[in-house]
């Protein structure tokens, strides 16, 4: 590396040479430093990054973390991480050397987050606080695991917030049918909600569906992708988890409805999205339909809960339900345990019968 002054602009520039991970020699130039000290500081920071020296700033290590992890994470997941990094973490730690950040600094940062308000003037929820903390911890864990940082300072402090799931709401079949009737004036809304309720698919899975995903001879729909809107772009990603890749058997009435809907889409390509609507559109329609049908307003994702509760009511096992809806683990299905019919009475009756036989 070398630092030079440019007489014409009265500023400083740095020639930066390094060897990349393939062994290729690279060179880059950085201009416009007001002082030699600034140029030397930038030069030193680049050297720290190349040698993975933990005297680098936290901001520089986030660049390293980004290069290591961005291509390994789904685009929508990374988008969320990046927003948290830029707005909740980097403003506090960006210029600190990562090796010098102490537990007391984490406590001070947590207190800032606990006092902070969202755009509506409300304190952050416990779930969001935990999400923010987990992201900071992930940065330090990466430094410990792969770059030789001695310890993760967030571990000594402990987590803020807590993982408290939202209330699980659902519609009964009768409530859904009232809602569905209210949706019949808009075909795209009606058919979209039919798929969500009767198949239990996720919102992103619905919006990624194409004609080639349907096999009407076998009465199936294949779930192999998910739709996201990121930075104004339509993005098709893999489903949420590996188990989310699945083939769902559809009831015959739903097959008939979807064939009817596809006939209405003139000149649609086999790999074109059949629901070219947005998530906000679905939320608006949920508001409208619930109001017209006079049923409680639930979230779009609660239609998935409604499908699962219907299957439980019909007597299907947790294993069968997990396979249909694409739960990564059956333990997720057991979160609906309170909906499964109690076997306690049956157990008592059978024990009573067994005792009588033994007498």
Order of helices and strands: EEEHHHHHHHHHEEEEEHHHHHH
CATH superfamily of the largest domain: Intergrase catalytic core
How many helices in DSSP terms? Answer: 15
Query: What integer is the average pLDDT?
Result: 86
Describe this structure in words.
This protein is mainly α and 359 residues long. The chain folds into two domains: 2-157, DNA polymerase, domain 1, CATH 1.10.150; 173-339, Orthogonal Bundle (hpI Integrase, Chain A), CATH 1.10.443.10. The protein has 15 helices and eight strands. The protein has helices at residues 36-50, 58-69, 75-93, 103-115, 126-147, 153-157, 173-182, 187-199, 203-207, 252-264, 279-293, 302-313, 318-325, 330-333, 344-358, and strands at 2-6, 11-19, 25-33, 214-215, 220-223, 226-230, 233-237, 246-249. The chain has a three-stranded antiparallel β-sheet, covered by helices on one side. The longest helix has 22 residues, at 126-147.
Give me a quick take on this structure.
With 359 residues, the chain is mainly alpha-helical.
Please supply descriptive tags for the structure shown above.
single chain, 359 residues, mainly alpha, DNA polymerase, domain 1, 2 domains, three-stranded antiparallel β-sheet, 8 strands, 50% helix, 12% strand
List the helices and strands and how they pair.
Layout: E1 2-6, E2 11-19, E3 25-33, H1 36-50, H2 58-69, H3 75-93, H4 103-115, H5 126-147, H6 153-157, H7 173-182, H8 187-199, H9 203-207, E4 214-215, E5 220-223, E6 226-230, E7 233-237, E8 246-249, H10 252-264, H11 279-293, H12 302-313, H13 318-325, H14 330-333, H15 344-358
Antiparallel strand pairs: 1-2, 2-3, 4-5, 5-8, 6-7
């Amino acid at each position: 590396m070398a630092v030079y002054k440019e007489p014409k602009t009265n500023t400083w520039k740095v020639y930066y040479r390094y060897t990349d991970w393939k062994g290729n020699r690279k060179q880059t130039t950085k201009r416009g430093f007001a002082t030699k000290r600034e140029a030397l500081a930038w030069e030193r920071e680049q050297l720290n990054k190349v040698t993975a020296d933990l005297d680098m700033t936290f901001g520089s290590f986030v660049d390293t973390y980004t290069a290591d992890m961005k291509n390994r994470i789904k685009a929508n997941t990374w988008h969320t991480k990046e927003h948290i990094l830029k707005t909740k973490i980097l403003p506090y730690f960006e210029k600190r050397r990562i090796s010098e950040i102490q537990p007391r600094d984490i406590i001070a940062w947590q207190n800032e987050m606990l006092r902070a308000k969202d755009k509506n003037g409300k304190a952050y929820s416990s779930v969001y606080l935990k999400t923010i903390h987990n992201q900071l911890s992930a940065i330090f864990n990466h430094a410990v695991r792969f770059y030789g940082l001695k310890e993760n300072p967030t571990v000594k402090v402990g987590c803020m917030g807590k993982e408290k799931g939202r209330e699980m709401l659902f519609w009964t079949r009768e409530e859904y049918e009232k809602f569905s009737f209210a949706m019949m004036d808009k075909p795209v809304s009606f058919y979209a909600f039919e798929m969500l309720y009767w198949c239990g698919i996720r919102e992103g899975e619905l919006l990624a569906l194409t004609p080639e995903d349907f096999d009407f001879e076998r009465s199936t729909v294949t779930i192999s992708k998910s739709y996201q809107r990121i930075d104004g772009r339509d993005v098709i990603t893999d489903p949420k988890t590996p188990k989310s890749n699945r083939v769902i058997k559809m009831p015959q009435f739903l097959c008939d409805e979807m064939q009817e809907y596809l006939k209405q889409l003139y000149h649609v390509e086999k790999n074109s999205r059949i629901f070219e609507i947005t998530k906000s559109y679905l939320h608006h329609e949920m508001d409208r339909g619930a109001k017209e049908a006079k049923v409680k307003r639930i979230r779009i994702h609660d239609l998935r809960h409604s499908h699962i509760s219907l299957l439980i009511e019909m007597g299907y096992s947790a294993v069968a339900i997990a396979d249909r809806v694409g739960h990564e683990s059956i333990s997720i299905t057991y979160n609906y345990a309170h909906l499964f019919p109690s076997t306690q009475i049956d157990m008592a009756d059978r024990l009573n019968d067994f005792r009588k036989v033994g007498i």
